[in-house]
Write a structure and sequence with these properties.
- The complex is a heterodimer of chains A (about 575) and B (about 200).
- Chain A has about 575 residues and is α/β, with parallel strands linked by helices.
- Chain A folds into four domains: about 210 residues, Rossmann fold (3-Layer(aba) Sandwich), CATH 3.40.50.970; about 100 residues, Rossmann fold, CATH 3.40.50.920; about 170 residues, Thiamin diphosphate (ThDP)-binding fold, Pyr/PP domains (Rossmann fold), CATH 3.40.50.970; about 55 residues, Alpha-Beta Plaits.
- Helix content of chain A is about 35%, strand content about 20%.
- Chain A has a seven-stranded mixed sheet. In chain A, strands 14-15-16-18-17 form a five-stranded parallel sheet, sandwiched between helices.
- In chain A, helix 10 packs across helix 13.
- Chain A is globular and about 80 Å long.
- Chain B has a single domain, classed as Pyruvate-ferredoxin Oxidoreductase, domain 3 (3-Layer(aba) Sandwich), CATH 3.40.920.10.
- In chain B, helix 1 packs parallel to helix 6 and helix 2 runs parallel beside helix 4.
- In chain B, strands 2-3-1-4-5-6 form a six-stranded mixed sheet, sandwiched between helices.
- Chain B is an alpha/beta fold and about 200 residues long.
- Classes of the chains: A alpha/beta (about 575), B alpha/beta (about 200).
- Strand 8 of chain A pairs antiparallel with strand 2 of chain B.
Chain lengths: ~575, ~200
């Protein structure tokens, strides 16, 4: 029976059906739910890796050892994982090996909208781009066949609207795939220059064979309805094209998009006079089609950035701009902010008072410490840059003579992902940086996933709880301060102690995320005494959604407050108290 | 089954239970044999941001996405979010709005004030059914069923008689809470019916 499934659920089901034995991933929106769904199948070993590069290496190792495997990440994760991927393409596979990347056009939850299709071309690996959930399931199965038949890693490119849209899916049968008996094969699996030089021309031959597959693949579909007009589209754009263009246009719907089916495209162009190429973000297909000497309309009329929808495409084509009625309401934005009771609040509120402090932040919920009114972060670049960018800043201040105190701030999951190398860099090159780990015992922004510091694996098994303190000490920090950020006095004292210390010093700011379900929280409720409130608005500086002004006095929303007492501690007039 | 594809937008604030409502609606539609596509944005939603779900159903649906000026119905879980969501609506579309405000961070920090004319402005352009579903839920003894009160109102205006709402509700709500949810659903239906009558009169 058909079921309504998200693309992520359908991919998970397809991985299970394809007989995948090992899956490794690092959480990242919009990809996170793939492995979370895969975890329900006992026949698959699924794990959270410390980062995407590790995930790819683990999965590739499993392939070399003879089983079908997959590595899953969001688009920027592929930047981290690029190194093993490029080499794995040269060496090929034993068990089928697929790399899933979920791009995020429009940057709903990302710091850029890079188009990862370019990676397929740069690394010379075949690529699938499904357009709905059924294709997610069917194509992930096919991706393993392609991987084993052509002896190559296969790239599976999704986007937010594929991952998080639901459509009807008919599940299939589960394949019985035997592990391939292990045989040592150093000429294939040792990436040395000598072997690489042998692999390089073979890679070109493989691409020719894949181009032939692309022309014949059932997933690249031609529909000639009209010799005047036609559309070439891939991914979600296939659905948008069907929605917007008249049904009597001709369609070339592409899902195996690297190498492109050149013969198929030539034949389509011979039968259709005017062709539109519809694709999100970069002109990936368009430029390659034009290089074939085929004239098409594409990014000259359609947007080069942000996701597409039918209304946008219609407007580009026909100039039919929907007149939006002006409702004459003064709208207020609803930016995401730290949750009421969030342990990060106490740290950011305390550190923002240090006028000499420069804070290099990182990717996670705590990026929100840079938003008003806390405004406590100076930079956020990418996973792990919190420590290493802080190092560069501190060296620059040393060289320029500016009087600054530099903090590098990362979360616990980010510390294990790529913060540790930055912590080593600071010690090794004698940086004057105070590395801070905001340890809320989870990977929270992506939905509270476990990580090497939580003591639990993806499958819920008890694991070694890797100590952040022990790592700092082991790499040479003489002083490691651990503090509860909910106690503002202790928090400020810890910051002062770190600044004044003559020793190399690291800080761990520890309290569990309020959203964690497996923790016993000491939730309470705070309330404002309107007679004592002087309307000074100091409590608003903590940036908590639960506290706002009603009739010119502070008011705490009992539906939102967790009784963290941070606002109570900053009030100078004892106007806030805990409800007994 | 009508051939025309219908487009519905649900909008609210993270944590208000928009996802449950869309799950009940889509499972009822699927059981009745409709082709259904649904698209949602999570990500930062948990942190008090604006959240929306788009649902399209009919005999054959291609795009899961609804663009500006394309939706037939807006179900808004919050007053100001209703105004934000109105950009999706066709000219003659219908809005069901929860007459309830959640203070956004810029208002909480005193940098902006919450607009006081949301429902009035919407009523000038669209057909609006509004009531305070939060209060209704509290009267029913569980403030968390606010979303199902709104679902009931939507079920009433959609006029999809072939849908088995009760089964869909049971599939998506824990057994322990089913009775309150059934009451909330019924209450939402009644409210929408009387509001619609008031409109016609």
């Amino acid at each position: 029976m058909k079921r309504l499934m998200s693309g992520n659920e359908a991919v998970a089901r397809g991985l299970y059906e394809a007989g995948v034995k090992l899956a490794s991933a690092y959480p990242g929106t919009p990809s996170t739910e793939i492995i979370e769904n895969l975890n329900q199948y006992d026949s698959v070993y699924s794990e959270w890796a410390p980062n995407e590069k590790v995930a790819v290496e683990v999965a590739y190792g499993a392939s070399i050892a003879g089983v079908r495997s997959v590595a899953i990440m969001k688009h920027v994760g592929l930047n981290v994982a690029a190194d093993p991927i490029f080499n794995a393409v040269y060496d090929g596979v034993e068990g089928g090996f697929v790399i899933i990347s979920a791009d995020d056009p429009s940057m709903h939850s990302s710091q850029n909208e890079q188009d990862n299709r370019h990676y397929a071309r740069a690394a010379k690996m075949p690529m699938f781009e499904p357009s709905d959930s059924q294709e997610c399931l069917d194509m992930i199965r096919e991706a393993f066949e392609v991987s084993e038949r052509f002896d190559t890693p296969v790239f599976f490119r999704m986007t937010t609207r594929i991952c998080h849209s639901k459509s009807l899916v008919e599940p299939g049968d589960v394949l019985e795939i035997e592990a391939i008996p292990y045989k040592k094969n150093p000429a294939k699996y040792i990436s040395s220059p000598g072997n690489a030089m042998v692999h390089r021309p073979l890679l070109e031959q493989r691409l020719l064979a894949l181009a032939d597959y692309s022309d014949k693949s059932e997933f690249n579909r031609v529909e000639i309805n009209n010799t005047n007009f036609g559309v070439i589209a891939s991914g979600i754009s296939v659905q948008i094209a069907r929605e917007v263009f008249p049904s009597d246009y001709s369609f070339l719907s592409l899902a195996f998009t690297y190498p492109l089916p050149k013969k198929l495209i030539h034949s389509f162009a011979e039968q259709v006079d005017e062709i539109y190429v519809l694709e999100e973000v970069d002109p990936f297909m368009e430029e390659q089609i034009k290089a074939l000497g085929i004239e098409v309309r594409g990014k000259d009329i359609f947007p080069k950035m942000f996701e597409l929808n039918p209304a946008i495409v219609r407007e580009c084509l026909r100039g039919e701009k929907q007149e939006l009625s002006d409702l004459d309401v003064d709208m207020v934005a609803r930016p995401p902010s730290l949750c009421p009771g969030c342990p990060h609040r106490g740290f950011f509120y305390s550190i923002r008072k240090k006028k000499k402090a420069v804070i290099a932040g990182d990717i996670g919920c705590y990026t929100l410490g840079g938003s008003e009114p806390l405004s406590a972060i100076d930079s956020v670049i990418c996973m792990g840059a919190g420590f290493s960018a802080a190092m560069g800043m501190s060296k620059a201040f040393e060289l320029s003579g500016e009087d600054k105190v530099v903090f590098g701030v990362v979360g616990d999951s980010t510390f294990f992902h790529s913060g540790i190398t930055g912590a080593i860099e600071i010690i090794y090159n004698k940086g004057r940086v105070i590395p801070v780990v905001l340890d809320n015992s989870t990977t929270s922004m992506t939905g509270q996933q476990d990580n090497p510091g939580t003591g639990r694996t993806l499958s819920g098994e008890i694991a070694e709880k890797i100590s952040i303190e022990a790592i700092f000490r082991a790499v040479g920090y003489e002083k490691v301060i651990t503090v509860d950020p909910q106690d503002l006095t202790a928090m400020e004292a810890a910051i002062d102690e770190a600044i004044d210390s003559d020793q190399t010093c690291a800080m761990i700011v520890r309290r569990p995320c309020v959203l964690l379900k497996n923790v016993e929280h000491d939730f309470k409720l705070c309330e404002v005494d309107r007679d004592l409130c002087t309307s000074c608005r100091r409590c608003l500086q903590v940036g908590c959604m639960a506290i706002y002004y009603v009739d010119d006095k502070a008011y705490i929303d009992p539906g939102l407050c967790t009784g963290c007492t941070v606002c109570m501690q900053v009030c100078n007039f004892d106007a806030i108290h805990i409800v007994e | 089954m009508s051939e025309a594809v219908k487009s519905i937008v649900l909008i609210g604030v993270g944590g208000q239970g928009t996802i449950l409502v869309s799950n009940v609606l889509t499972s009822a539609l699927v059981a009745a044999g409709y082709d259904v596509k649904m698209s949602e944005i999570h990500g930062m939603a948990q942190r008090g941001g604006s959240v929306s779900t788009q649902i399209r159903y009919g005999q054959k649906v291609y795009s899961p996405l609804i663009g500006a000026g394309e939706a037939d119905l807006l179900l808004a879980f919050e007053r100001m979010e209703a105004v934000r969501g109105a950009a999706y609506l066709k000219e003659d579309a219908l809005i069901i709005v929860n007459d309830y405000a959640i203070v956004p961070p810029p208002v909480a920090s005193g940098k902006a004030s919450y607009p006081d004319n949301c429902i009035e402005a919407l009523s000038n352009k669209f057909k609006v059914i509004s009531f305070n579903a939060a209060r209704v839920a509290e009267e029913l003894g569980n403030s968390r069923v606010m979303n199902v009160v709104l679902l009931g109102a939507m079920a009433e205006v959609l006029q999809l008689d072939s849908l088995d709402w009760d089964t869909a509700l049971k599939e998506n709500v824990p057994e322990l809470f089913i009775e309150t949810n059934q009451k909330a659903f019924k209450r939402g239906r009644e409210l929408a019916r009387s509001e619609e009558k008031a409109y016609e009169a």
